[in-house]
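Sorry to interrupt, but I need a hand with the structure work. It will help me judge whether the discrete encoding reads sensibly. Write everything out right here, beneath this request:
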Amino acid sequence: AANLRERIRRETGQSVDVFTFHGFAAKHVLRDGERVATELESDAAIDSLYKGPTSRKTVETAHGSRKLCPKYMVESAILNHESARFSITSEMNIIMSRLAESRLVPTWALFNRFIDVPQYRHVLVDEAQDCTRAEWDIVERTRGTPFFVGDGKQSIFDFRGAKGSMPFKSHSLTHSFRFGLAIASACNVVAAEFGGDPIEGCDRDSTVTSEIPDRTGKTTAYLARTHHDCAIIAASMGDAAVHVRRDPLDAFSHESDRIGSAFAAGKTVVSTVHGFKGHEADIVIVDESVFAATEDDRATVEDWRVLYVAMSRARDVLVLPPERIHAFI
């Protein structure tokens, strides 16, 4: 939110309300003394069902007691509730109750409490392809004229219930204002793998290479598939890099911009592709792990989209693994 607010102020000279969906909900539903639970606090509450002095074998329901669901089923139920307003299970009620003892509210419970949505005349939704059903519902309840900006080729959050498609009157933008012809051409090679429409580059100079250029004075991002991959990369780069792992609480801060802060300090940002969504850098290095995911036996269209998103973050120089570069130049 902080990044987008600054971009709008710089381009228009005006200030607007900018929120993440969770931040918007939290602003209006948290009661005095409450705060949003951190990821670790929420995970600990879930774990308390299965181990320690508060573990249990059964839960009470409207129809009597039943066996406690496995942890993976509870986590799936939480995701379905947050993204599509599925019913709250008995396990979820226990988790919320335990967090409430410390005046904590899990992120996934915010939307369920968000009944009185503030009214706006106009609502612009960025990265609309990543919206869940619950988030679409919040937009509708603002009763404002909605404007959605998104790109189906960049839909990489299916696992959290993102809808991907935008069933509205649309105006296609075929030009990129971020990168030039060379990077556009490389991105189109990947888009062709999953039927994505090609994009045209702007007149900005751009380069696709396997050689890491001089990074002096340039913002640089090293993108990998998992946080484990990121940790290995960051360790190999020492003080020159910082592994940026977004804290869920960043969604509730107007000023938090960990990536921007790392760039300002002259560091190379090492991040997962999902964590770097919505950002860009002068130089982007795409790790082999992002390519390897497209060749896994379980690979899906979304794995190709993740690669597309990674490559399309670059403004000036796109650095690809030496063993992959031949397909793009």
Q: What stands out?
A: DSSP finds twelve helices and twelve strands in the chain. Residues 71-84 form the longest helix (14 residues).
